[in-house]
Batch of 3 targets.
Target 1
Amino acid sequence: QVQLVESGGGLEQAGGSLRLSCAVSGRAFSSYTMGWFRQAPGKEREFVAFVSNSDGNTYYTDSVKGRFTISRDNAKNTVYLQMNSLKPEDTAVYYCAATRRYTRAPYPTMYDYWGQGTQVTVSS
């Protein structure tokens, strides 16, 4: 069974950086499109970014473009989210997700596996 474990969250000042990691247990990691989502208290789960299984293409929600970078290391079965120029509105629980059904996957319903989440708090 595929399991995902996020790490790297924490408290950071506005303008600072954090790097989130998602370690994936199971075979055929490279077959999975990997996504990052986030959810703040009282808000719906929001798409952040994905990296495709097929060609490695990436896509970001407008609010993080130019600041966040998603990447994957297939040899390590790990996907990363480099978060730069952090803003207080980035504060949320960040979730890693995986799907092999889609090459482009900006919606949570497209994903089959989810991590437990890691808290990111950005202070002003």
Target 2
Amino acid sequence: HVQLVESGGGSVQAGGSLTLSCQYSVVSNCMGWFRQSPGKEREGVATIYTRSGGTYYADSVKGRFTISQDTAKNTLYLQMNSLKPEDTAMYYCAAAPLLPLTYCSGRSPWSGDFGYWGQGTQVTVS
């Protein structure tokens, strides 16, 4: 069973940086970050296929966000640079224990494939 705990959210000015962390209890094939803001669908921001390190990034964050993991510390990270007001959202860490590579980092991830979620951490950019 997977338990996820996010941290690192907060309020920052446009152009600033922020790093989110997600500590997990058990490793999964696929780990990722999703976000949701009022009036919008929950979207996959970035995912990593832990068995190979392959990653996926939404077009809106490419070149600005970086997903990484420290397996020794059971921690997933999302480094966010050049933040924009439109990045404002609740960010969630999610895990899909048995999800194949093609559904994890080969294309835009579907939230329904992820069975384990953290409580969320708010990111506000102004």
Target 3
Amino acid sequence: QVQLVESGGGSVQAGGSLTLSCAVSGGTYSAYSSYCMGWFRRAPGKEREVVASIDADGTASYADSVKGRFTISKDNNKNTLYLQMNSLKPEDTAMYYCAARRYPICLSGWSGHYWGQGTQVTVSS
């Protein structure tokens, strides 16, 4: 039904920047606009964690580890979710996943109903 495809991953040196994009298709525009959206990541040997979330009304939240460095945004007209990552650290190395929840608010501890396949981010020292 709803498909999400991530792009923009790559390899950068510590202190560098990357912008991830998540293209959404399927479903309806109105439904997508009312969804909670966010980015998750999973590093090798670690559990999946939510990195950033954005409610339907645009309210954003971030994991403590990325506050001040990452910015989540969305463009409903382009059906695209973004994650701007600045001042990257080696600990940010992970597979990053885009997710959507069929609810307008990203409640604490939320998980997605729809998931992308992921895009790899590697940060070197």
